[in-house]
Structures are given as structure tokens and as C-alpha cells.
Specification:
Elements lengths: L7 E2 L14 E2 L15 H9 L4 H18 L8 H13 L4 H20 L27 H9 L4 H13 L3 H5 L6 E4 L2 E7 L5 E6 L1 H8 L24 H14 L8 H14 L4 H8 L4 H10 L12
Antiparallel strand pairs: 1-2, 3-4, 4-5
């Protein structure tokens, strides 16, 4: 039933900015005005980052700060030309295409969020083009001999266990750093770990016996309580990501690998080597925690086992 005409008033002088022409229904009807979600840029960014992982929050805050320092104006005044100039400046600075892609993708995400909330009337980031990414996955896959040398030449028990876990379980560096003893359970002569991964998703991974034994050798009955970290820093807390990256890089150099190897390279090696040895692709997907099978299938394309060129009369 429609409200009587007398219940509809023109309240132009009393409406907030942007709602000058909205009628307000009085009496039994409800005023259909969407409340403002954020009063300033800081509030908007906090809403955008809510619920994300600490590592993502830190990275995205740095990306947005970089943009705002460059343009020197609040988000509501930024136009497409500002974003394009920012993108050009990132390229002039010599940033790798992957870094530029990540920064600009974060910026686009923020502006799309601001538009959905009504903080902006138009998503000025939507037309912004992201740098084309070349597929460099094949360059970051170590061969089996290189990985085995890295592990064999590592004399420090903790560091050797880290290498074995990163490779044997295909963990992300943040997942390995955050592992606690409560996440580790013995199982049929080996063990399994519960991993709290990307996007807050949890997965269980059955470990090879060599990995499990290397981890259990680090356990001190006096300190290995449930909430204690598996990989302990000098200050008796969780080993930090930067420290784990340094030890992996040193292990690779010791093994004669000339490239700058990161922990993620061992995750790549896990996927590629498991598929090479005929592991079912859905098992690799579950172990790595990929959201879709297409992410796992990249490793098949990065190291093909056959080529049409091999059938030519050459």
C-alpha cells in the first residue's frame, strides 16, 4: 500500500550532501538513507584491511602510503590521471613488473572497495591497466639435485629441519614460521601438521618420515609446550620470516646455486617434483592449499614432459 501524499515531504534543506533529492517517508514508512560507512581515508583503509592476515595488512598499508605520498591529496580527490602517473613513476624507479603489478592491484582493490561503500561516486581505479606479467615460474624451480645438496650441506639441525619442511610439505614461509608444537601430531610412524594458511584457511598435511624425524629432533621436553614455536629464534620466539629467508639463501649459495633463492622456491620445487613423479594433481593441490586446480596446473605447464617439436624430422 502506498503512503499518502501527506507523508512525503521534501526535506532538501535537511538532507546530507549527495542526498538532496531523496524523499523521506514519515509515519510508518522508514527513511531509505544509507548511512555513511567511513568519515575519512584512515577509516576507509581500516575497513578495507579488516580481517586480512598481518603480512597482507603490512604490505597493503605500505602500498597505499606510497600512493598517497606520491599524489599528495586525499583519496576522494584522486583521479585516473593521478593513478596512471603513479604507475609510470613505479616503472621509472625500475621496480620489477611483479612488484608493480602487486602494488597497483592493491590500489585498484582499495578504490573498488571505496566505491562499493559509497565513499567514492566512481571507481577511478577500474580503468587502470596492470602491467603484463611474464610467466617466470620455470626459472624458479630448482632441480632435485640442487635441493638435495642444500639439505645435505646444512649442518645446523634447526635449519636442516626447516629446509626439509619447506620442501617436503610445500609450506609458505609464513606458515613455517608460525608453526607451533600443538600443530604437530604423531601418526603411524610419521606425523602430520595443521597449517594455518593464506586467507585464514586451515589444512592438514601428512609429512614424510624424514621431515617428521628432523622436526622431532628439535623438541625439548622442557620447552616444547603446546603454544611454543617449533622453530625458535634467538629471543625464544617464533623465527621471523626475514631470518628464514636468509638461511635458505645461504643454504642455496653453499650448494652452488648462483641465483637468489627464496623459501618459496622450495614450495615450487615440491609441486614440480611431486608432479614429475606422478603424484595426483588433486593431492598436490590439497597439500599446497591452492584454492583452485588451475593454480596447481601451472607447474605442469612450466615443466612439460613432451613437445610437438620432438616429433619433427630434425
Amino acid at each position: 500500500m502506498n503512503p499518502p501524499e501527506s507523508s512525503i515531504r521534501d526535506v532538501k534543506d535537511h538532507q546530507p550532501d549527495g542526498h538532496d533529492n531523496l524523499p523521506v517517508l514519515t509515519g510508518a514508512a522508514t527513511t531509505a538513507v544509507i548511512p555513511r560507512q567511513a568519515d575519512n581515508d584512515d577509516m576507509l583503509i581500516a575497513l578495507w584491511l579488516h580481517g586480512r592476515s598481518p603480512a597482507t595488512v603490512e604490505a597493503y598499508q605500505g602500498d597505499v602510503r606510497r600512493l598517497l605520498d606520491f599524489v599528495g591529496k586525499p583519496i576522494c580527490q584522486i583521479i585516473l590521471g593521478d593513478l596512471q602517473a603513479f604507475a609510470d613513476d613505479l616503472e621509472r624507479q625500475g621496480l620489477a613488473e611483479t612488484s608493480r603489478h602487486r602494488i597497483l592491484a592493491a590500489v585498484k582493490s582499495l578504490f573498488a572497495f571505496a566505491c562499493r561503500l559509497g565513499y567514492l561516486q566512481f571507481d577511478v581505479g577500474r580503468p587502470l591497466r596492470l602491467p603484463t606479467l611474464r610467466n617466470r615460474l620455470a626459472e624458479r624451480i630448482l632441480d632435485e639435485g640442487q635441493v638435495q645438496r642444500m639439505i645435505a650441506l646444512e649442518a645446523h639441525p634447526r635449519n636442516r629441519a626447516i629446509l626439509l619442511l619447506l620442501y617436503g610439505a610445500g609450506l609458505r614461509v609464513s606458515e613455517a614460521c608460525g608453526l607451533k608444537w600443538r600443530d604437530c601430531q604423531a601418526r603411524e610412524g610419521s606425523g602430520q601438521i595443521t597449517v594455518h594458511g593464506k586467507g585464514g584457511k586451515t589444512r592438514m598435511i601428512l609429512l614424510p618420515s624424514a621431515v617428521w624425524e628432523a622436526m622431532r629432533s628439535l623438541e625439548d621436553p622442557g620447552t616444547a609446550v603446546d603454544d611454543a614455536p617449533v622453530f625458535v629464534s634467538r629471543k625464544h620466539g617464533h623465527l621471523r620470516k626475514a631470518a628464514m629467508e636468509r638461511l635458505v639463501r645461504r643454504s642455496a649459495q653453499r650448494a652452488g646455486v648462483l641465483r637468489l633463492v627464496s623459501p618459496h622456491w622450495l614450495r615450487h620445487a615440491h609441486a614440480s617434483h611431486a608432479l614429475d613423479r606422478n603424484a595426483p594433481i588433486h593431492v598436490v593441490q590439497a597439500t599446497l592449499g591452492h584454492a583452485s586446480l588451475s593454480s596447481t596446473s601451472r607447474y605442469v605447464h612450466a615443466r612439460p614432459t613432451d613437445s610437438s617439436g620432438r616429433y619433427l624430422p630434425l
